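Trying the structure run again after the queue cleared.
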Amino acid sequence: MFFPALALFALANLAGPASAAAAPALETTEGTEALRLFLDCDWGCDFTFLRSQVDYVNWVRDRGDAEVHVLVTIQSGGNSREYTFNFIGLERFESIDQRLIYTSSFTDTDDERRRGIQRLLELGLVRYVLETPQAEGLIVEFKNGESQGERHRDHFHPEPNTLVADAEDDPWNHWVYRLRLETDFRSEDRRDSQSYRASASAGRTTDMWRTGMGVFYSYRESNFEFEDGSTYKNVSRSTNYFGQVIRTLAPHWGVGVGASSRQSTFLNLDNSYRAAAAIEYNYFPYSESSEREFTFAYFIGGTSLDYEEITVFDKLEETFTDQGAYIAFGMERPWGEAHIDLQYSHFIDDFDRSRIEFSTDVEYHILRGLSFDVYAGISRIRDQIYLPKGGATDAEVLVARRQLETDLSFRGGIQLRYTFGSIYNNVVNSRLSSESGGFSRIF
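Done. Tokens:
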């Protein structure tokens, strides 16, 4: 365990320590800092997109740090989804509350939906932004003759965000720490299962650096009883340590180094360690990555493996170096979204030990009410050096306890959706709307 601990320590110090004695948040008088906003939305909100578009406020992670708390609730109607935005004023905006509603049709694309959410969020923020220096950059336009989605849109063009919080204003120096414990269990007459998962991570993101490190552990146990009275017990464990530092080189360039350690019953790994470096170029500026990206990357690394069982190549341990490249394209537009990924890697001392992976996912909004989704992936696999010599038993195959040998892997799916009928959907009725099917469900 010395290697991952040393690597994570080095990575943490490379990005600069988070001083426990960092300067406290600057005290300011009323109206001399950007609005602090907490968006309370469990699902359906594209936070990355919203943060990139609504960049004239301070986004905070906790309600206790906010001046405006936006609580979003969602209800589904016959042909739409209704988002209710409850704006709750705090601190200097105490008792200044309002409620706005955005209705999204099920025929809307993800891009149309997130832009509608953005529009309503910005409309609701106007009365609060007016009380801050950012109000000088507020311009209201009424676009007559535009499509319904473009009408009544408020445009904000504030000066550069000199008032948005920087490291000196943050006692945590932009570090975020996460702890998670989770367990679940189920039991029937002849089978039962239980699982435990735990994780701890730390990360820091600025314009120039992105640093992350963490540990993840999982344990799953399943027990089965057969007709003849015999039993079978399956236990699967996995532990992962990781750390990485990413550096911004330019608006289109990034470089990073990382290290990891892994133990896995599924992959026959008793202990494994890896260190690698990568460089990436984005044809589009990274500032536009929530809407479009076209990246090219190269990586090189070294890996050391210790196995639980002797492999098909009669090895209990081995090391190798590998290199690879990938291309990734993605965009979200009013017509839908598309994602394409292609990756190739090989061992440096043995080009036959290689892997090629291709995947694509396209959602196309053909016309009102009609959309077409397709996803597909194919992998050519020649690098499964970790497979145990004894193979997998029938029971291990059934419970997916071991990775199985394969040269090719395919996956894919197609979905065609068509919604038609009344264009009006003003009423939301939530009576007897149990998501599990309620009184009309069979079993």
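Residues 1-32, 146-162 have pLDDT under 50 and may be disordered. Worth checking whether this holds up in the mutant runs.
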